[in-house]
Amino acid sequence: MAAMDLDGAESKSLFAQVQFFIVQAEDLQGDSARELAKLLEENGAEEIARTTVANSIPLQDITHIISTTTDFPEYEVANDALKSVVKPDWVKASIAKGRLANPRQYSPDPRLFFSGLVVCCADLPSGDSDAIIGGVLAMGGLYSSPVSKMVTHIVALTMESDKCKTAISKNVKCKYVLPHWFDDCLRLGKRIDESPYCLPDPEILRKRPEDRILETGRQDMLGASSPKPDRLPTPSSSPSANRRQLTIFKGKKVLLSRDLELGSHLLGTIEDLILNGGGMVTGSVYKADIFICHYRESLDYRIASRASKDVGNLAWLYHLITHNAWTSPLRRLLHYPVARQGLPGFSRFRISLSNYNGEARVYLENLAKAAGGEFTKTMKEDNTHLVTAHMVSEKCDAAKEWNIHTVNHLWLEESYAKWQIQTVSHPRYNHFPTRTNLGEVVGLTPVDKKAVEKVFFPHGSDVDPSVDGDDVMRPMTAKPSNATSSRGTNAMTAHPMRSAGSRQDVPSRALQSDGPTPKASKENRRHTEGNAIRTPAPSRFIGHGKENETPSTTGSRSAKDKAVAKLHDLAPDIALFQKERKRVGGVTHGGRKSSEDMVLEINRKRSVSRDEDTDTGADEETRAMKRVKKSKNLAPPSMRLVLSGYKRWVGASKKEGEERARLREMGILIVPDFASCTHLASPHILRTQKFICALAHAPTIISTNFVNDCLSQNKVLEPEDYLLQDTEGEKRMGCKISDSLARAKSNKGQLLRGYSIYCTENIHGGFETYKSIVEVNGGKCLMYRARAGSTATLRAGLDEESDGSEIGTPGYVYLISGTTPEEAKLWPRFRQMIEGMSKHPRVVRHEWMLELALSQKHQWCDTYILTDKDVAITA
């Protein structure tokens, strides 16, 4: 009886540490949402209600968000705040296991397209099985070795395998698929329908390649196939409500840009919908929560984008009105403002479509035009690209004959999303699964916000988004008597906005919205230049009259800005050219300076900077220049020496320059770069950056007495007679230096290969010191600040790693930290982030890294771990 009570108590406390919020969606609302909340509460969880401020999710009070989608306003903020966003299946899986399931495996993130799958492999070769398991786990799925009721897919070649028979006998509700399905999904980066791959009679083995493939459509493309819709939609009512009133704009302030070119009647209607839905129409971009515009060029667009406001086009606004449900403007490519000039280099492309139908076809037509290309309904020999959903069509046959690039829609989508023309030779873009119509995965590519930011609204260029201005808003209840006049009042309202670093007022918002396009960036220019390599032969474009068109400008100021921006981009190249011209031999015949010359040149600059106001400094410069000229006749050095802890030249720059030159004449080159050194000289074992980094390259370690004696005797002595002997240091370090060197030779700079190691910003010794130590040993080191916006980058960096594992301790990720209270505040968030990615966090002292690098072997003891007690001692 006690055991039963104990089990019951454990069951009720399963979610004791969970404070959850359920995001209402079409497939999770009403009764289903209430049943899910009841199930969580019965097992110890606590439901948190929305706050009254703009009806937002109270992220500070919750640990988990239950949602079937990532398409809700707070998702990015929740992700940065390390809140777990999971699908409802996570609740059932946790209850079934009797412990909290890994949230990553139940993420609604569309990038983890195998999320929700539990895969079991049956009688496959070990290599194929390992590849499938790795791909499934990387894309959010789970693997089960035995056949259980949790299995959703069994991967097999035939139904005769023992696991397939076991699943049938146990009546396991799963699908039996060929391994080809996983291969095609991973190649495309999208999850396609598994029906053609299902046993016992898979279509991909039964049908011929030339057989007709069924058409497929995407109903959710409605309202997202054009950036400029031709009619205003009617608001739809929620299935659980009996009224048609909008609520999506409740507590939101909306700014409508002049570049929408809306008529007075349509403008008044849209404003009425926003006002009646509880929102506001504002004339200030600083007060706005939502900014609606057509082009990515106005000042208001850049201000709103930098301030992380929701920026979308009219199609996105109509979508919100139609469905009365939130969706991110970045989720669909044509819900985001377009670029007036299109993607650089894309205007030379003539694109035709094949095998796409319905809204998917309209969407791809408009996407090609929005990218700046020319779309043709019929295909001729002068077409450059054919975008097709599969390879069975007359157009595909003609494209082969005419040597026209044949790609799937992912090439077009990702070129537009990343704002860079993608190479057509990439396997991802010319892969066509045998019996799949790729129209089923059209429209799943989101806008790459980072790529768009680099080109269209880089931070710190022309305005300060934090500067506020005067705002004119209509009351939420009053209906405007005249839409035109009221809009005009808002549009012409002047408010002070100051550019970054300036106190001057700028013109009104109405004038700014028609301002010049953003300055051309070096990244943008690089895209244009690089695309020339990937475009078809120039002969294909002769006669189209597009390459020599003069771009339109908005006035002399715009032209001046562009000229200045271009000159600014070329400045580094000009400076380098001028520098190269001054060298003997000029730009084409001068060649690169040798490393010896560079060392002496550095010494010369040091001497000049220290003595620039004295005649002695001028004399030293002259002598240094003579040594540079003389060094050109020297033989290659026999020894490249790194010095660590050498005190002879401290405060004696003149002596240093002379003695370095003498050593170089002997064949001993003092180098600052430990990567190229053959010898390391030190008075004893040190924990300096130079000593530790050089050790990873296994140099010969000698005493600094070698340098002193060579200088005093004016000849090269035998380095083996000066091998470093430091018994006391070795005892303190816990290993012999000879053993460390032997291990370093064996490690070949890969001691930390596959490791993800983070450092706090204020770590003792400086972040760059530990970064160099980690990287010279083959690892990856990132700074951890736990600031909003940086967590996603760290997650992405960690996902790109292999598995961050070491033998015997798989999946450990380390944070090197000090013991200050400020650093200790980062520890809980770091642990939560790493645990959320199915890895094991360790917050460690800096001694762990130093001793590991010095010994050149993995060693561990619990004293490296930092705990709250350590903070209390040092605080």
Question: How would you describe this structure to a colleague?
Answer:
The N terminus is likely disordered. The longest helix is centred in the middle third of the chain and has 26 residues. This protein is α/β, with parallel strands linked by helices. The chain has a four-stranded parallel sheet with strand order 2-1-3-4. The chain folds into five domains: 105 residues, 3-Layer(aba) Sandwich (Rossmann fold), CATH 3.40.50; 89 residues, BRCT domain (Rossmann fold); 172 residues, 3-Layer(aba) Sandwich (Rossmann fold); 152 residues, 3-Layer(aba) Sandwich (Rossmann fold); 126 residues, Rossmann fold (3-Layer(aba) Sandwich), CATH 3.40.50.10190. Helix 12 packs across helix 14, helix 21 packs antiparallel against helix 23 and helix 22 packs parallel to helix 23.
CATH level 1 name of the largest domain: Alpha Beta
Kindly state the percentage of residues in helix. Answer: 25-40%
Radius of gyration: 33 Å
Strand content: 5-15%
Beginning-to-end CA distance, first to last residue:
49 Å
Major beta sheet, strand line-up: 2-1-3-4
- Weakly predicted, low-confidence segments: 1-11, 237-243, 464-557, 584-622, 799-810
- Number of β-strand runs: 24
Task: Fill in the CATH topology of the largest domain.
Answer: Rossmann fold
**Mass-distribution shape:** globular
Oligomer class: single chain
Would you identify the CATH architecture of the largest domain? 3-Layer(aba) Sandwich
Structural class: alpha/beta
Biggest sheet features:
4 strands, parallel
Number of helices: 33
Mean pLDDT: 77
Count of domain modules: 5
CATH superfamily of the largest domain: BRCT domain
